[in-house]
Amino acid sequence: MRLTAQLKITALLLISILLTACGGGSSASTTGTLSGVAAVGTPIVGGNISVICVSGSELTPTTTDSNGFYSVTLYGQALPCAVQVAGGTINGAANTTPYQSIATTVGTVNITPLTDLLVANLTGSATPQHMVH
């Protein structure tokens, strides 16, 4: 599955902001796991998880389980990474809203409406795409 244009744009903007804020970036590759829960109060089940990092190849997409949990392994990517969940179901209804988060270290990266709002603020968006009517 290819990453959406929105995820790529978000990743590039976040990377630019983060590198500017810290005065540079680390090109060191990282091995580790990104995992967490995609939820909006209840889990996003069967959501498609996409991850793109500042460098390295696109990670193999995965899906969330019945508790909204996902896990991906980094091999040679450099942080930070943009993480997105799209599709799946919420309480049995189709999820039509993509949500995003950002990983600055390996470990837990939850994806929620709050992390989506933080990404929107970091990238200079007035509001996340799904909040615009």
What would your notes on this structure say?
By secondary structure, the protein is α+β, with helices and mostly antiparallel strands. It has a single domain, classed as Immunoglobulin-like. It has helices spanning 5-22, 113-122, and strands spanning 30-37, 44-45, 48-55, 62-63, 69-86, 89-90, 93-94, 99-103, 107-108. The strands form two sheets. Strands 1, 3, 4, 5, 8 and 9 form a six-stranded mixed sheet that branches. A three-stranded antiparallel sheet has the order 2-6-7, with no helix packed on it. It comes from Rhodoferax lithotrophicus. Keywords: Signal. This is Carboxypeptidase regulatory-like domain-containing protein. Residues 1-21 form the signal peptide.
CATH topology: Immunoglobulin-like
Domain count: the total is 1
Structural class estimated from helices and strands: alpha+beta
List the secondary-structure elements in sequence, H or E.
Answer: HEEEEEEEEEH
- Fourth CATH level, the homologous superfamily: Immunoglobulins
Number of strands: 9
Largest sheet: 6 strands, mixed
For the record, the CATH architecture stands as Sandwich
Shape, principal axes of CA atoms = globular
The first-level CATH class is given as: Mainly Beta
Identify low-pLDDT runs.
none
- What is the arithmetic mean of pLDDT? 82
Q: How many helices does DSSP assign?
A: 2
